[in-house]
Write a structure and sequence with these properties.
Layout: E1 2-4, H1 7-19, E2 24-29, H2 35-44, E3 50-55, H3 75-85, E4 89-91, H4 114-118, H5 122-137, E5 141-145, H6 149-161, E6 167-171, H7 191-207, H8 215-224, E7 229-237, E8 240-247, E9 250-257
Parallel strand pairs: 1-4, 2-3, 2-5, 3-4, 5-6
Antiparallel strand pairs: 7-8, 8-9
This protein binds adenosine monophosphate.
Adenosine monophosphate (AMP) binds at residues 29-30, 36-37, 39-40, 144-145, 147-148, 171, 173-174, 181-184.
Length: 264
């Protein structure tokens, strides 16, 4: 596995591969890799000739009081897992923004509710960095996890609206054996907080079986009854029931598809 830190070198390599007719796959991440990230690699690996994983803790998608500074950055661990999982090139840039950067990509519809409402500017940071990664890596395919369902919506819309020549693949949510959606932020949780995360995941799953008309109210009521868990939002979008909560200092998100047979 090659490790590339320079954006211009990455872009030159990608251009050469494309001229050679090779199909490029991109797995964008912020590192602190876990099985969820590796499942994205597994999904894309058979569908492309060259698989690029990017690791970049993107400052512009964090709010001023969010966890940018303390976000985990286990470089050796990440490099080992990426290599073992079959990544061809690990793109790990230092800083992707010039000091006088004055251009951004802002989506105006699907980014408005849910996480967009509670994290102002977040999806503009996401859309902008993903647009930059698309221009640098020039992927034919890029994969994003359903764990961040609204992020998938925003990226799909951006790729469509701005004519990026890339196919967006959505990957299913990987959970641990207690049903908690894997997340790099789970590392922040102490043992009691982790138990609350298990309850959060369980309630969301049960809520998704209550039918469309009652799922949100039922889930909100049950989450309100959980000590040590503050609700950020509970939302139904199409058939996706999603929620964000704060457990101590940690913000967790999760979502479930409303089961058709339970629709009310
Ligand atoms: P992150 O490093 O948190 O920015 O995530 C990088 C990519 O991995 C995003 O597309 C996420 O949606 C995806 N991802 C994160 N956690 C999971 C998970 N538990 N299952 C599947 N995909 C995930």
């Amino acid at each position: 596995m090659k490790v590339v830190a320079s954006a211009s070198r990455m872009q030159a390599m990608a251009r050469a591969w494309k001229q050679g007719g090779l199909k490029i796959g991109l797995v964008p991440t912020m590192g602190a890799l876990h099985e969820g990230h590796l499942s994205l690699v597994e999904l894309l690996r058979p569908r492309c000739d060259l698989l690029v994983m990017s690791i970049y803790v993107n400052p512009t998608q964090f709010g001023p009081r969010e966890d940018f500074g303390r976000y985990p950055r286990p470089r050796q661990h990440d490099q080992r897992l990426a290599a073992e999982s079959g990544v061809d090139v690990l793109f790990r840039p230092g800083n992707l923004y010039r000091e006088d950067v004055s251009t951004e990509v802002r989506e105006h519809a699907v980014s408005l509710g849910r996480c967009g409402a509670s994290r102002p500017g977040h999806f503009t940071g996401v859309a902008t960095v993903v647009a930059k990664l698309f221009n640098i890596v020039q992927p034919d395919l890029a994969v994003f996890g359903q764990k961040d369902a609204q992020q998938c919506d925003v990226i799909e819309r951006m790729a469509r609206d701005l004519n990026f020549p890339v196919r967006i693949v959505r990957a299913p949510i990987i959970r641990d054996r207690n049903g908690v959606a894997l997340s790099s932020r789970n590392a922040y949780l102490g043992p009691e907080e982790y138990q609350r995360a298990v309850e959060f995941a369980r309630i969301l799953r049960e809520g998704s079986r209550k039918g469309k008309s009652t799922a949100v109210a039922w889930t909100r009521r049950r989450l309100r009854g959980l000590a040590g868990v503050d609700i950020d939002y509970v939302s139904l979008d199409g058939s996706i029931l999603s929620a964000a909560v704060r457990i101590g200092k940690t913000r967790l998100i999760d979502n479930r598809k409303i089961l058709p047979r339970a629709q009310g």
